[in-house]
Structures are given as C-alpha cells and as structure tokens.
Amino acid sequence: MALRKIVVQGDECLTKKCRVVTDFNARLHTLLDDMAETLVDSGGVGLAAPQVGVLRRVCVVMNDDDEIIELINPEIIATEGEQTGLEGCLSVPGKYGVVTRPYIVRVRAQDRNGDYFEVEDEGLTARCFCHEIEHLDGHLFVEHTDHLLSGEELEEFLRQQEEEDE
Ligand code: ZN
C-alpha cells in the first residue's frame, strides 16, 4: 500500500465526470488499498478517486465505527430527511461551509469484486456518501454554499453548536 497525493481545488481532475469501472482487477484493489491508507493518514472521513488523480467512479467512506466502505460505481437510490451542518473537503483545505444534505442516504454500489450491494447510513456518513459521490461527477461541496467560513467564523460556529448541545 502507498499514500497517494491528494489534489486540491483548481486541479482539473476535480471537475471531470469519472468513468464507470468495468475491470475489477488487481489495479483497482491497489487503488482501493491506497485510498484507504491515504484517507486514514489524512484524518478525513471520505475520499474519491478523482481526489488522487484517478478519473474512475470509486470512493471510500469511513463510517461511525471506523469501518471503511468501498463504493464502486455508486448511486444514491433513496434519501430521507434533512441535515444542515458544517462540511469540508480534503481537496479544499482549511475551508468549511454550511451545507444541507439528506439525513438518511441509501446507496447501491459494487464491491471490489464487482458484486452489487446496498448500504444505508445517517448523519455524517450519509453526508459523506453525498459528498463523495458528487466528486465522481466533478462537483465540490463549495457549489452548495455561497459563503465559505474563515477560521474566525468557524470558531464562532463551533462555539454556537456547543452551546446548542448543552
Ligand atoms: Zn471532498
């Protein structure tokens, strides 16, 4: 396994529509292993192949149990509810925006052997499914917000959230 370099906003890989995976071969498995290692190393919760310069419909998402879900050719097949919260991206370092997403998201995808499966989750993991799958069509979360938070605004936002939680 090896760490891959994460490209940042401005790189054309992040604006391209990714191609469907048709070969579930060793090359794909290496990509998935590398993406998982890169995700853990970066401290993020999700990573899409275009973020490491590979224009294929592949992403990895870490759920609340710290399990890595590998999604190949994923499609969102059902959503429920709504959540509004802070969102960031490893390819947009240091910037955060408030983005509204569905609260529950169900995804149909293929695993690394090409077998179809469905996975459903809520909260942050559901948000992550939406965020990563969007990457595969060349979209970034910044398109959902007209205002990215500065460091100061982020602190204020987190302080407010803490107060609400008390
Ligand atoms: Zn992202």
Notes on the structure:
The protein has a single domain (12-165), classed as Peptide Deformylase (Alpha-Beta Complex). 27% of the residues lie in helices and 27% in strands. It is built from 3 helices and 7 strands; from the N terminus they run αβββββββαα. The protein has helices spanning 26-42, 123-135, 151-165; strands at 46-48, 58-62, 68-80, 83-87, 97-101, 104-110, 116-122. The strands form 2 sheets. It has a 5-stranded antiparallel beta sheet with strand order 1-2-3-6-7. Strands 4-5 form a two-stranded antiparallel ribbon. The longest helix has 17 residues, at 26-42. Bound molecules: zinc ion. Residues 89-91, 131, 135 line the site of zinc ion (ZN).
Helix vs. strand class: alpha+beta
Q: What is the share of helical residues? A: 25-40%
User: Strand order across the biggest sheet?
Assistant: 1-2-3-6-7
Major sheet characteristics? 5 strands, antiparallel
Low-pLDDT parts are none
Q: Any ligands, ions or cofactors bound here, and which?
A: zinc ion
- Order of helices and strands, N to C? HEEEEEEEHH
How many helix segments? 3
Beta-strand segment tally: 7
- How much is the average pLDDT? 95
In the CATH hierarchy, the architecture is Alpha-Beta Complex
What's the number of domains? 1
Q: How large, in whole angstroms, is the Cα Rg?
A: 16 Å
Relative strand content: 25-35%
Indicate the multimeric state.
Answer: single chain
Identify the CATH homologous superfamily: Peptide deformylase
Any idea what the shape is? globular
